[in-house]
Amino acid sequence: MSLGTVTPAQASSRTRTGIVLAGLLIALAVAAVFSACIGQVPTGPGEVLGSIAHRVGLDLGPLPAHPSGEVTLWEVRFPRVVLAILVGAALGCAGALLQGVFANPLAEPGVIGVSAGAAVGASAAIVVGGAFAAGWTVAASAFIAGLITTVAVYVLARHDGRTEVVTLVLTGVAVNAFAGGLIAFFTFIASPAARDQIVFWQLGSLNGATWSAVAVVAPMTVAGIAATMVIAAKLDLLSLGESAARHLGLDVERLRLIAVLIVALLVSSSVAFTGIILFVGLVVPHLMRIAVGPGHRVLIPASALCGSLVLLLADLGARSLVANADLPLGMLTALVGGPFFFWLLRRTRARQGGWA
């Protein structure tokens, strides 16, 4: 068999991967249109597509019949849909990257303290600025605090030029606990109105989505996913084992530092505008690993697409499950993600004897 020959098993795997990626893209497009239709101003799928077509110069489809339909779509619903897609992609990609570089199935962005650090920054900004602290001040504080916390976890875990995975995870646990104490302190000293704002920020929501927020998150998400794709082949090498990867010439420490910085960029920019959103970064990569296999050149884009779809559907549920109410997004992802992860755990134990 020549080197260029594709075996039936490889052809089947590629076909399956293509079907999964195409299915995710179609499901994401359908969910995005349907999500843009939901709200107090009645809008149909044809009007949503027609509005987009007219905006790009194509005289196709009807415009929204409601007098406020066009404004509602472009100022309220489309920014929310786009931000959900971006944040979901960032969390899915970050989870797949961390699980790959740590070789740990429990790794997720919260492990390295980025979410807890962002919450500390947001809480501090709300307490200092009061209940009327500007949204951009809170977002900027959350972003900076998330980055600082991530770098602190990495520096504290590093010893003699090396960073052991177990030490890094345990350092993240300690820093998360310390951050939890700071959040509790800020909540305790805050005024009642500011206290409510801190609590609701931590529950997660896309309620404040704007095009300005999209303009900040979009380049960071695209850059983070692109950087992850660049190191995807090295993540595959690392999956052979740390010693084997070193023998093959891989600079493991440098790869881990790059991975941590990418995750900090992806997650800090996302949670700064949405608050803490749990389980997307943990569950989605496991689900996609089942569907497309462990190769990171496929797993990374699949996790990004699936993360977008999951967060878009979660936001749709948050807006529509209770009439005239916007449920906390982090609450929904935790309520659905927790039992689903438990199902994955049971499935893996039954088929492979567990992850350990």
Automatic annotation (TrEMBL):
Residue ranges annotated as transmembrane are 20-41, 78-98, 110-132, 138-156, 168-191, 211-237, 257-284, 326-345
Record GO terms (molecular function): transmembrane transporter activity
Q: Which Pfam families does this one have? A: FecCD (PF01032)
Q: Which UniProt keywords apply?
A: Cell membrane, Membrane, Transmembrane, Transmembrane helix, Transport
Q: Where is this protein primarily located?
A: membrane
Q: Which GO terms describe its cellular component?
A: plasma membrane
Q: How does it sit in the membrane?
A: Multi-pass membrane protein
What is one GO biological process annotated to this record? siderophore-iron import into cell
* Localization (cell): Cell membrane
Similarity comment: family membership: Belongs to the binding-protein-dependent transport system permease family. FecCD subfamily.
What protein does this entry describe?
Heme ABC transporter permease
